[in-house]
Amino acid sequence: MGYFLNTTDDYHRHALETLGWELTVCNCLQPQNSPCRPLLKSDGSFGKHLLEFLGHHVPLHKLRQVLEVGGGLGYLMKDFLSLTSNLQATMLDISPVLLQKQRETLTGLPAVFREADFLSLSTPELSCFDLAIFNENLGDFPTLVFQNTTSQNDSSAAGALQKAAYYEQEFSLKFSHGETINIGALEALEKLCGAGIAYIYLSEHSCEASLHSPYYPHRNFEASLTPEKISLWGHNEYTIRFSHLETVARTFRYRVLRGCYIDILPVGLNPKAKTALRAQTAANDEQEIIQQFFHDLYKYEYLLLINEKKAQAPQR
């Protein structure tokens, strides 16, 4: 019995050819004729909705440098740069294929592109940014996974287990025996907070989210409370224990806003959507998409972290 370190690095560097296997919420809302848009109170892409949400908490007009890590096809940042006039984006990605897609999507917009592993960046490289965005990708970061069939800890897990012990001591986190540990997500957040970035936005599938709706009982689900494996084409990802990330952020004295996507994407269900959500099983592809999208509105959690000291500092 022992731990191994699950990573998606090799897949993203060498095997990934398309995001077609991973239909993110952001990509779901991108087409104007998306069957998911009618579920929302107001029409629009994910980037538009997120920008509006952030605008209630962040002085967007004062920001200059924004970093997006793992920006997928670039749709979110296209909205940000198209709808504002003051932002300069840095797109950082480990995947050369996705980085090229982002270049194509952001043609003519103020963005630079860098192929690199975020965890290899130094604090000085990050301290210049006003806003950092990790949207729907924390599950891609290295994860410590326990297996009963492993005779002993895998050699690749040794360093990560030392980091886990450090997080237990430094941030008073508690990892139970055999628990799956989002070690890469913790390390990424520590790096961001250590750089003192004024505003940090993170989102991903959560193992602590749940849904209890009396109107759509077939859509309800419980929180597992421990990271769950998501099996995808060519790799595995894991849901995130957001309470651990919240603890790290608060230790760095960040103000924390935490919630589910339903806060960012409030629903105004039309009759077709209500019919799909009340059905025990989907009658067609469109109903299946609607059901999955509604599930994700509650399954995805976000953290918006605000460094009060930096936020109140005079504009540069």
Kindly describe this structure:
39% of the residues are buried. The strands form 3 sheets. A 7-stranded mixed β-sheet has the order 4-3-2-5-7-11-10, sandwiched between helices. A two-stranded antiparallel sheet has the order 1-6. The chain is α/β, with parallel strands linked by helices and 316 residues long. It has helices at 9-15, 25-28, 46-55, 75-83, 96-105, 123-126, 158-171, 183-194, 242-251, 261-264, 271-278, 285-299, 308-311, and strands at 2-6, 65-69, 88-93, 111-115, 131-135, 143-147, 199-205, 229-232, 235-238, 255-260, 300-306. The model has no long low-confidence stretch (mean pLDDT 94). The N and C termini lie far apart (53 Å).
Short description:
The protein is of the alpha/beta class and 316 residues long. The chain has helices at 9-15, 25-28, 46-55, 75-83, 96-105, 123-126, 158-171, 183-194, 242-251, 261-264, 271-278, 285-299, 308-311; strands spanning 2-6, 65-69, 88-93, 111-115, 131-135, 143-147, 199-205, 229-232, 235-238, 255-260, 300-306.
